[in-house]
Amino acid sequence: MVLPRLFSIFRIFLLAGFWVFSACQKEPASLTRPEPLPQDTFIKVYFNNNQTRGADYTEPYRKITRPGDDLETIIIDAINSANSTIALAVQEFRLPKVAQALAERHEAGVQVRVILENTYNRPWSSLTDAEVSKLNLREKRRYFEAIALIDLNKDNQLSTEEINERDALIILKNAGIPILDDTADGSKGTGLMHHKFLVIDNYTVISSSANLTLSGVHGDLLTPTSRGNANNLLVIKDTKLASLFAQEFNLMWGDGVGGKLDSKFGLKKPLRPTEKLVIGNNIVSLRFSPTSTTLPWSDTSNGLIGNTLKNATQTIELALYVFSEQNLADLLETRHQKNVAIEALIDSSFAFRNYSEGLDMLGVALSNKCQYEANNRPWQIPLATVGVPELPEGDLLHHKFAVVDGKTVITGSQNWSAAANHTNDETVLIIENPTVAAHFQREFARLYAKSVLGVPIAIQEKITAEEQECPEITTASEKNIPQGLININTATKKELETLPGIGPKLAQKVIETRQERPFTSLEDLQRVSGIGASLVNKLEGRVTW
Fold it and tell me: How buried is 363 (Cβ within 10 angstroms: 0-12 exposed, 13-18 middle, 19+ buried)?
């Protein structure tokens, strides 16, 4: 396979000097790195950017020796321990060494099954030049990173041998491992299959915030300073918990690849209440999303998160990729008024969007076309302890965790948003154990120590400009604008116009485009002339399809 000329040009800019810089690079050991914390017997906690003494490894792809827990090796070791079954549900899977480990266990007679999000159920190496040219800038970069990983001899051509060795999905398919995605229920995919878990031998559960990609685990291949999106991973040993994860997997799997359309994703799955278990010294609550908007919010996964936050009496520490759930922000304000100390970090790509609850916590608001979010509620007593972490270029704060009173952890795959609560396939875990919580507290402290707090000058200037440009800023509810997620396949023209960046002309184009073919993902909106990657990012957490 000869790679597109565009890839060769891209390589000149991004790879120039990279291999010299990174090959056999070793980061200097720090004399101030803290000693490792004790691990719980049944629930062990890992972070890909762990800075404790002795948490070092050499990445297998860039050959960089760096601080951090090697999440890929932890996963591979668990896979290699399997004697009977492995069930993997993950949004995106691109790590070839994990794929090879699964292939070897499959060949040894272990039942291996894999569920992916439909957007990522295609090998990168199978894309044609025409398909690559239509990718948005973000997806093009991801494509080039993937191709650079597969192209072992760096000759700008992909041989069959290279593809078979480095394209993770090809490795799975060559091994005969069955794979299905969230279209197996006959739909085009209702939301995101956003789970990130493995169940091994009906005893070991791995639950993570990380996708199985280089950027999610180790770092961007073509960005030497990247150390991977900040993520956590839990290894939990418990038969009852494993059985609950297996039930969730089996609902989605149905009768498998090529069978009846009896797989259940999204709201097609039956309502499952929160399960509470005792695992050694841990009290663990487990809930799977989504939950219908027709049910009380308190009976949802975000409601479970809220009920946990309500119990805080001293401290709440938040490390979140996305925070756009108004109810949770309101609950946090109540705790703040009760003298609970709150510190919050949100990824910089979401922290200052007009629908971010980080703005509420900072006591300010941004409008969309002179209209605030429905129920928008900036805090009367703002926090000065909300901000964004300073991370290496290319890396994201991808955690979805909170620590309450130093003894309870909220974690899993679920972002704190309405889409995660009511549309996506997600996991929420609440773990009550100070031993486990201490690990998350240390990770939060690491991120908080290198963060920028408060309202950035650029946002302050934007707010000032709005006050001058908007004689009267109203809320969405005052203008009878729909609350909650807007379905881009069924919304009226007026409803579409309430979305950020969507005016009358663009709303009409959305309607005309969906009449040709319904939208199957957020990124699919880019079929509409005038909608690019920047606008798609603004619609994250606002729409469904």
Answer: middle
Q: Are 431 and 407 in contact, with CB atoms under 8 Å apart?
A: no
CB proximity list for 448: less than 8 A, separation 6 or greater: 317, 343, 345, 389
Whether residue 290 contacts residue 266, with contact meaning beta carbons closer than 8 Å, is answered with yes
* Token pair 């922000």: residue: 329
Give the residue from 200, 208, 214 showing the smallest Cα distance to 87: 200
What is the 3 state secondary structure string of 324-362?
Answer: CCHHHHHHHHHHHHCCCEEEEEECCCCCCCCCCHHHHHC
Q: What is the pLDDT of residues 11-61, one digit of tens each?
A: 544 444 444 344 445 565 555 899 999 999 999 999 999 999 999 999 999
pLDDT in tens, 344-360: 999 999 999 999 999 99
Cβ(192)–Cβ(37) below 8 Å: no
Q: Which residues pair with 544 in a beta bridge?
A: 487
Q: Which amino acid is at 475?
A: T
CA distance 251 to 270: 9
| DSSP letter, residue 29 | P
Using alpha carbons only, what angle is made at residue 119 by residues 325 and 289, rounded to the nearest 5 degrees? 35
Q: 3-class SS at 416?
A: strand
Give the pLDDT band of residue 7 (cuts 50, 70, 90).
Answer: low
H or E element in which residue 320 lies? strand 315-320
Residue with tokens 């009896």: 262
